[in-house]
Amino acid sequence: MVAEKGILFILSGPSGVGKGTVRKRLFEESTELQYSISMTTRQKRPGEVDGVDYFYKSNEEFERLIEQEQLLEYAKYVNNYYGTPREYVEETLEKGLDVFLEIEVQGALQVKENFPQGVFIFLFPPSLVELKNRIVNRGTESQELVLNRLKEARKEIEMMDAYDYVVVNDDVDHAVAKVKSIIQSEHLKRVRVAKQYKKILEDEIH
Amino acid sequence: MVAEKGILFILSGPSGVGKGTVRKRLFEESTELQYSISMTTRQKRPGEVDGVDYFYKSNEEFERLIEQEQLLEYAKYVNNYYGTPREYVEETLEKGLDVFLEIEVQGALQVKENFPQGVFIFLFPPSLVELKNRIVNRGTESQELVLNRLKEARKEIEMMDAYDYVVVNDDVDHAVAKVKSIIQSEHLKRVRVAKQYKKILEDEIH
Question: What is the total count of domains within chain A?
């Protein structure tokens, strides 16, 4: 295949949906994905390596990078910053490697704003599918219970509006297979591939 | 999964690229795809069944359907019309089944105009990839030969501009696997899925 830039994939979804499990299984099966390395101001712990576990920065350095828009997203937990460095992601993509970022919904929305060319995958709890079955088999649940669940479902559905794909996590194997098909097919998109082919023509004919 | 309409997939590409072989293998492996049944004015042959091999129509009927824009594409060969009936495709999609159409480039461009919501896959000859390798290993080919090949390649690349995906047919198994990943991931697109989820909410809350 013609050389091509990598793609940034963002896996996100409501807390408790199983993002970490899906990401872990995916990395066991796919050796070509690069995991995005975060940047932090927290103290390096024994055994951790700079540029492997995290990129370690001082508070001043981190805040300067925020000002320079060098973070695709960041947040502060317990007085420490955590974030995704734009430079590391862009350099990895330039090498033709895909970067995979597993992140909470708020972080994903920040990435969407700073890097809209990423591919955003929403991992969805299977409960709405169950809910639908419950509605179909009416009478087995109280109306109040169904209405409460519908309110929650509405929130989850509104969250997915910023995403490109939705994968229901009803089973880890199924969810991983679906994420893999998204990764493969995104590389087959004409807008990406045609650009590369056209570049060969331009380089040679002019 | 929540009930969803089917998707029309169109596989096309330059003649000789191997569309028929890829389609045949795909249908051996995927039982869920419906092959699009064409409409024709040619005589029914012994053993053929109306609505299975073709929909057989008189010349007058076919021309009336053309006027009524009831064909996604059509062409005339040796005094007979051949075309893809819109009604059959739409009814099949409504049942939640995907329709798969293998077709020449000119027909695909007609379908694109009449049914832009289809997913258009361009099967690409592997020769441009070989061409690139030749350019990299310069000196093994005459400059004239490479320039001629580049002219042809330009035509092929311009053809793919109307398509959503490009699959290089360097190997039937690889090409089929890629088409399958496109089919799977298209069903995971948020624009399709979210609509279905939102419908459940509307049906229930209002």
Answer: 1
CB contact under 8 A, B128 and A197: yes
What ipTM did this prediction achieve? 0.85
Which tens digits make up the pLDDT trace of B80-124? Answer: 999 999 999 999 999 999 999 999 999 999 999 999 999 999 998
**Paired residues of A123 in beta bridges:** A167
Between chains, do A190 and B1 touch, taking CB under 8 Å as contact? no
Give the whole-angstrom CA distance, residue A157 versus residue B133: 47
Percentages of chain A per state (helix, strand, coil), in multiples of 5: 50, 20, 30
**Residue A52, domain member (yes or no):** no
A137 within some domain: yes
Among A1, A122, A129, the residue with its CB nearest the CB of B129 is A1
- CA angle A188–B25–B109, rounded 5-degree value: 50
Question: For position A149, which CATH number holds?
Answer: 3.40.50.300
Residue B44's contacts (CB-CB under 8 Å, 6 or more residues apart) are B50, B53, B54, B56
Separation CA B192–CA B156 (nearest Å): 31
